Amino acid sequence: MHIRLINPNSTASMTSQALDSALRVKQQDTKVSAVNPLDTPVSIEGGADEAAAVPGMLAEILKGEMLGVDAYVVACFDDPGLHAAREVARGPVIGICQAAVQVAMTISRRFSIITTLPRSIPIIEDLVSDYGAERHCRNVRAIDLPVLGLEEDPVEAERLLVAEIERAKREDRAEAIILGCAGMSSLCDRLQATTGVPVIDGVTAAIKLAEALVGAGYTTSKVNAYDYPRVKEMPRRNCA
Description:
- The protein is α/β, with parallel strands linked by helices.
- It folds into 2 domains: 107 residues, Rossmann fold (3-Layer(aba) Sandwich); 106 residues, Rossmann fold (3-Layer(aba) Sandwich).
- β3, α3 and β4 form a beta-alpha-beta unit.
- α1 packs across α9 and α4 crosses α9.
- The longest helix is centred in the first third of the chain and has 21 residues.
- The N and C termini lie far apart (57 Å).
- The relative contact order is 0.17.
- Its EC number is 5.1.99.5.
- It catalyses: a D-5-monosubstituted hydantoin = a L-5-monosubstituted hydantoin; D-5-benzylhydantoin = L-5-benzylhydantoin; D-5-isobutylhydantoin = L-5-isobutylhydantoin.
């Protein structure tokens, strides 16, 4: 089984960190590779960044299809281009937000999500609604730290996350916490040990879901919505 983890932004160190998280939980005989486009934003923080990242991400999936990759994990919590990615891939394509939400709904009745910047809150709230989890998600919170700040000052990032998790436990009565950024994945175990609440990382959740789907023989439906894109021909112009 070959799962390809795609970081839609162009920051290679974030790709490496997400891959490390994936390798910790994968089955022994599962191959996990990781790539990122080179011409996309260095971080994805809003709709414009998402739109700029999708073409490069789709190109990486098409490369994976030629190599026989079995499933893909989109390692950005905004799940950018997820539906488009499923149109071009034969195997499952898992977004880390959707995977984390599904895990949270399985292991808890109520959960909260903690992301980086406040501008990401409405994007994530819409995703939660799209995934049918609006009633279960108590709150979407932000630590007001840019994505790249997670790497630049990991000590401060962890301090802010611990404080926000404690507030979510107290104010939201959250029974589980989802980390709303792939760049937080390396902190998951320490945050859980410190706060005593289940902390869910979307990268590891998506890897395990991908393994389960591939192992069970499930592929992406090619009936109607997720069918391969139609090949278009340029209209011919009449010559005078």
